[in-house]
Specification:
Strand content: under 5%
Helix content: 55-70%
Low-confidence stretches: none
Oligomer: single chain
Number of strands: 0
Number of domains: 1
Structural class: mainly alpha
């Protein structure tokens, strides 16, 4: 188990699963996108949706949830308007990194590196460091 998972009380870690699922609902993620973002299969996703406390909190799952929560936090700082906070990931982006793609197109690859890079670029935008 990761150091993060060892430090988090079980109820806090499981609450993070439910929170991440709620955020993905607000992002209007499809089932396939949710599976990719969390790195889980369909039956596992359904289990987590029905009972977030049933989640097996692997280091991989915790890291993925952390990226979802942090991307959400950055979007809330960047945009005051809820329509943009929750819709931005679906909007084509001409930033060099996104190359005309919507950020969700990159995120839905399911790669941990996609979560990292999208978060990194959004965070850099927040800090005024456009790449």
């Amino acid at each position: 188990m990761s150091a993060l998972a060892q430090r988090l009380p079980a109820n806090a870690a499981h609450a993070a699963v439910g929170t991440a699922l709620n955020i993905m609902d607000k992002w209007e993620c499809s089932e396939k996108e949710k599976m990719a973002l969390l790195g889980v299969g369909r039956s596992t996703l359904h289990k987590y949706q029905a009972e977030p406390a049933s989640a097996r909190l692997s280091p991989d799952l915790l890291e993925r949830i952390s990226y979802v929560l942090n991307i959400h936090a950055v979007l809330r700082v960047l945009f005051e308007n809820p329509e943009n906070q929750y819709g931005f990931l679906r909007m084509p982006n001409k930033n060099k990194f996104f190359n005309g793609k919507a950020p969700m197109e990159i995120l839905s690859s399911g790669l941990m590196s996609a979560l990292y890079e999208v978060h990194r670029h959004l965070d850099a935008t927040r800090d005024g460091q456009f790449s």
